[in-house]
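Researcher: Quick test of sequence recovery. Tokens follow.
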């Protein structure tokens, strides 16, 4: 067989010829065992048996191939983790049964004598017990390798958190210091988490959880799925405020991740005394050939100086990247507004497009950041009227956003991440050209009007309220 394999690899298409030439000798190994004879004698006996029973062997081979085809097709309905072990167990049984059938036909033994001898040697209950062990242990091992048993061994009470998800505004980001987000508030996502008591501020916490996430596929589509995971987080402190997050050495393991895309790295942060959970799946990293192990996560978010607000500090450039998740015991419009304000407080000022930045801040309702940017415009000799609005912003947003629900508010805030939400027009007035970004609100409309000189530098920026 080794010689034939080597020859077949060299002559390529003619391997079928070699296969046909070896057909008369395919029974040689079984003749050696059954007749306890030498290889030369077995080769001759195999050729005789194949010639005598050729049509039976052909029909039986075709039938066996059809059965194996149906079995292989049916196995595709099983979970991927169990297909491999099922094949390892079932196929050898079928192969052994086939060999037994063929040999029984070729060597017509006394069936009654064989059955009696078989029953004398092995009792049926013991045989069934052996079959049970043979099938159950590999399946148990496969499931243990997936880690799902840990979900059943964790007897801690699980808390349920309602969630929101949001995605980086790809294509409309000035740079990593000023992210805008599209809020996917129509997704009903939850996380169930076994969270130990944080009252005594332990150095590390661990447990299990189930999270509802949106998983992308290679086709670019997204699907909702529940994923079990195991976590270990370590204690971090900022300005005497404690929160918990995983490090590169303490990765999160997704237990039942089955997707077209490899398992991503996961980052989790728990803060506000366990009332808020932030969850992020990093884009998959393809390891080098021959490398196996847990994928490590990078720092994809941080906290503000109070230790209570999540701060995304990285933007995705992958069109089908995973979203961020924010789970909380209570998600309110005020909490989301505080999140946006904290995110924007760490934003830099952008001379390349202050019109976009101011329009985005207005859409999100981050008026304190707009007030903070006004001196930067003055310093750069850009004419503006932001100072005139400094005393109006709080009342304006109270009038426009005050009576909205969280979902309605997020609909408006999401527009800071879309072209339609910050649509730009070129207008001419008194012989001068202006760009305008039109922002619609529940009861009014604002225009961020700005002009650019021939060198591409901003000269003016005004906020105009349409009555």
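Model:
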């Amino acid at each position: 067989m080794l010689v034939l394999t080597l020859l077949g690899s060299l002559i390529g298409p003619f391997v079928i010829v070699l296969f046909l030439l070896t057909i008369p000798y395919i029974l040689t190994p079984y003749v050696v065992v059954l007749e306890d004879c030498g290889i030369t004698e077995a080769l001759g006996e195999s050729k005789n048996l194949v010639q005598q029973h050729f049509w039976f062997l052909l029909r039986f081979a075709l039938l066996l191939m059809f059965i194996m085809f149906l079995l292989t097709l049916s196995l595709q309905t099983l979970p991927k983790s169990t297909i491999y072990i099922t094949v390892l167990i079932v196929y050898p049984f079928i192969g052994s049964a086939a060999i037994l059938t063929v040999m029984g036909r070729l060597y017509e033994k006394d069936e009654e004598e064989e059955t009696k001898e078989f029953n004398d040697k092995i009792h049926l209950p013991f045989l069934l017990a052996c079959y049970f062990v043979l099938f159950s242990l590999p399946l148990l091992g496969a499931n243990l390798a997936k880690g799902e048993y840990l979900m059943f061994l964790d007897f801690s009470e699980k808390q349920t958190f309602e969630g929101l998800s949001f995605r980086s505004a790809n294509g409309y980001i000035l740079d990593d210091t000023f992210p805008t987000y599209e809020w996917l508030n129509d997704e009903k996502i939850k996380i169930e988490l076994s969270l130990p008591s944080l009252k005594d501020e332990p150095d590390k916490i661990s447990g299990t959880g189930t999270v509802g996430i949106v998983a992308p596929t290679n086709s670019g589509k997204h699907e909702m799925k529940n994923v079990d995971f195991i976590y270990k987080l370590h204690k971090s402190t900022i300005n005497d405020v404690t929160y918990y997050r995983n490090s590169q050495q303490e990765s999160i393991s997704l237990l039942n991740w089955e997707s077209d895309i490899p398992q991503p790295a996961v980052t989790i942060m728990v803060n506000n005394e366990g009332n808020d959970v932030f969850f992020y799946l990093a884009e998959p990293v393809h390891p080098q050939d021959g490398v196996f192990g847990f994928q490590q996560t990078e720092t994809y978010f941080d906290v503000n100086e109070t230790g209570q607000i999540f701060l995304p500090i990285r933007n995705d450039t992958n069109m089908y990247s995973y979203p961020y998740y924010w789970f909380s015991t209570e998600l309110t419009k005020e909490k989301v507004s505080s999140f946006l304000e904290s995110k924007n407080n760490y934003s830099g000022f952008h001379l390349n497009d202050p019109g976009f930045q101011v329009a985005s801040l207005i859409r999100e309702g981050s008026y304190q950041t707009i007030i903070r940017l006004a001196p930067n415009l003055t310093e750069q000799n850009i004419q503006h009227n932001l100072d005139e609005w400094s005393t109006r912003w709080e009342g304006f947003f109270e009038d426009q956003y005050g009576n909205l629900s969280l979902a309605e508010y997020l609909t408006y805030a999401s527009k800071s991440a879309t072209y339609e939400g910050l649509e730009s027009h070129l207008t001419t007035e008194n012989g001068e050209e202006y760009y305008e970004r039109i922002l619609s609100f529940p009861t009014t409309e604002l225009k961020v009007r700005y002009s650019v000189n021939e060198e591409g530098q901003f000269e003016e920026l005004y906020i105009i309220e349409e009555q």
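The chain has a mean pLDDT of 78.
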